[in-house]
Amino acid sequence: MKKLPQVLIVEDEPAIAELIAINLRHHGFTPVCAEDGPSAQKALDACVPELILLDWMLPGGRSGLELARHWRSQPRTKQVPILMLTARSDEPDKIAGLDAGADDYITKPFSIQELLARIRAVLRRCDPLSVGQVLQVGELRMDGATHQVSYQGEALKLGPMEFKLLRHFLQHPERVHSRSQLLDQVWGDAVYVEERTVDVHVKRLRQALGKAGAMVHTVRGAGYRLSANPA
Ligand code: CA
């Protein structure tokens, strides 16, 4: 079954939050609303969304800018794309938002069509699978719409961790990933997992991939790499 991409909306104005939520639901997303920093953090602790829509001006406590900076520094949320909503159109503020780790921003008032287009653009760039695109390296494919993995047209069966690992490899092919990078970027939350665990799952992934297993290279002293060319 296809999971709808979840979007966390952090916005203190209920009318705006609701308008966004209704439109996101209409367009195949699962919106979750939070009206301030603490409730947004609670939502993130419960579930990591595919994208965060973050209002700049929030009541009390931390501003959207500080929240963006904080979430970027946390292993659990550092990969989640952030789209800032801002009433400010001043150039320095936009730059501050991007420097804090936002992937894009949109200035209020905005049209819902523009917001949706920007959400899709950010997701395509940061997480193509979540918007139903296909990740492909050589003849190895992962379909975002069905979550099917196949090689040379034949379906393969992967465990959940192997799926996540392959997804990461397919998003960054031909690049060497160290064990600690993989732990950080694929396991994320589970910071107490040993590096040895990575080796175990890479081995399982190779087995599950069958002939395509040879596309997962061991780079001695450095880590692992997925390549279109078998090792
Ligand atoms: Ca606000």
Strand content: 15-25%
CATH architecture assignment name of the largest domain? 3-Layer(aba) Sandwich
DSSP summary: helix tally: 8
The first-level CATH class of the largest domain is given as Alpha Beta
Query: Overall pLDDT, averaged?
Result: 90
Structurally, the number of domains stands at 2
Number of strands: 11
Gyration radius, in Å: 19 Å
End-to-end C-alpha gap: 34 Å
Catalogue the unreliable spans.
Answer: none
Order of helices and strands: EHEHEHEHEHEEEEHHHEE
Bound ions, cofactors and other small molecules, one mention each: calcium ion
Could you describe the 3D structure shown?
By secondary structure, the chain is of the alpha/beta class. It folds into 2 domains: 6-125, Response regulator (Rossmann fold, 3-Layer(aba) Sandwich), CATH 3.40.50; 134-226, Winged helix-like DNA-binding domain superfamily/Winged helix DNA-binding domain (Arc Repressor Mutant, subunit A, Orthogonal Bundle), CATH 1.10.10.10. Helix content is 40%, strand content 20%. The chain is built from 8 helices and 11 strands. The protein has helices spanning 14-26, 37-46, 64-73, 91-99, 112-126, 160-171, 179-187, 195-209, and strands spanning 6-10, 30-34, 51-55, 82-86, 104-107, 134-137, 140-143, 149-151, 154-156, 216-219, 223-226. The protein has a 5-stranded parallel sheet with strand order 2-1-3-4-5, with helices on both faces. Strands 6-7-8-9 form a 4-stranded antiparallel sheet, covered by helices on one side. Strands 10-11 form a two-stranded antiparallel sheet. The model has no long low-confidence stretch (mean pLDDT 90). The structure holds calcium ion. Calcium ion binds at residues 12-13, 55, 57-58. Calcium ion (CA) binds next to loops.
